[in-house]
Amino acid sequence: MTTTTREPAIRVRAVTKSYQDLHVLRGVDFDVAPGSIFALLGSNGAGKTTLVRILSTLLRANTGTATVHGFDVASAPGDVRRSISLTGQFAAVDEVLTGRENLVLVAKLRHLRNPGAVADDMLARFSLTDAGNRRAGTYSGGMRRRLDIAMSLVGNPPVVFLDEPTTGLDPQARIEVWQTVKRLAKDGTTILLTTQYLDEAEQLADRIAILHQGVIIQNGTLAELKQLLPSAEVEYVAKQPTLEDVFLALVGDTADGAAMPAGGESR
Ligand SMILES: Nc1ncnc2c1ncn2[C@@H]1O[C@H](COP(=O)(O)OP(=O)(O)O)[C@@H](O)[C@H]1O
Ligand SMILES: [Mg+2]
């Protein structure tokens, strides 16, 4: 039991969800502190998306309760929706439109005043200003995912759900998304992200919860979780340079992720 006066930004209590005979969530409990990054780690089919859909009011739990930004997902879904953004696993970007047009469209849909200025602000925040007037179809994977996240953040919601934000991205694009997520949290946004990647949770999360067979089997800081492993494995995870490190050292960790034009000279 916590004695802090700060309400958790997300509170999940005994949430269950079944699809017919398939008991996906069997009693999930956790809290997410405001302004923190919380990683929900689980293998394919563990129920991560199901939980995110419950927390973002797209799906109802069978039993249990959850609040987001102080609002109950079952009894105040409208308030929850106004407090969150959700970026799914598959990018919602319109490839025919430019990056800027995509953002203007979302700002208009949200009935924001001055959608052009909102779009320009988001382009700047996500290092997409130079690419703003290019069709999104020409963007690299990392730029597209950044645009997708930017679109979901129009209106500056206090709580953000990122469902497998880097699945399918190349290592360089993943780093770009990680930098974006870290910057968001620094600005005070609460982030719940799901991932299958240990290194992603390791890089980003203040707390990591492991969802397995319908329940949270571990929930702690990276240091706490590492103490659970035998030391040899800790050494392997912590000391060895990863293939990703090598790849990035060779390719160069450029921020814009711009593709080299065909026949372009390399450095
Ligand atoms: N609408 C649905 N109807 C039936 N089964 C579903 C439905 N949605 C998800 N599932 C099943 O529930 C389990 C958890 O899915 P999901 O939450 O998408 O997992 P994750 O996001 O962790 O990969 C999977 O076995 C999936 O096949
Ligand atoms: Mg999923």
TrEMBL record:
Entries under InterPro entries matching the protein: AAA+_ATPase (IPR003593), ABC_transporter-like_ATP-bd (IPR003439), ABC_transporter-like_CS (IPR017871), ABC_transporter_ATP-binding (IPR050763), P-loop_NTPase (IPR027417)
Pfam families reported in the protein's UniProt record: ABC_tran (PF00005)
UniProt cross-references to PANTHER family, sorted A to Z: ABC TRANSPORTER ATP-BINDING PROTEIN (PTHR42711), ABC TRANSPORTER ATP-BINDING PROTEIN NATA (PTHR42711:SF5)
Superkingdom in the source lineage: Bacteria
SUPFAM superfamilies, sorted: P-loop containing nucleoside triphosphate hydrolases (SSF52540)
Cellular component annotations (GO), alphabetically ordered: plasma membrane
Chief place of localization: membrane
Membrane association type: Peripheral membrane protein
SMART domains in UniProt: AAA
Keywords in alphabetical order: Antibiotic resistance, ATP-binding, Nucleotide-binding, Transport
Subcellular location: Cell membrane
An individual GO BP term: response to antibiotic
Domain ABC transporter, residue spans: 10-238
Protein's UniProt name: ATP-binding cassette domain-containing protein
Family statement: Belongs to the ABC transporter superfamily.
Molecular function GO labels: ATP binding; ATP hydrolysis activity
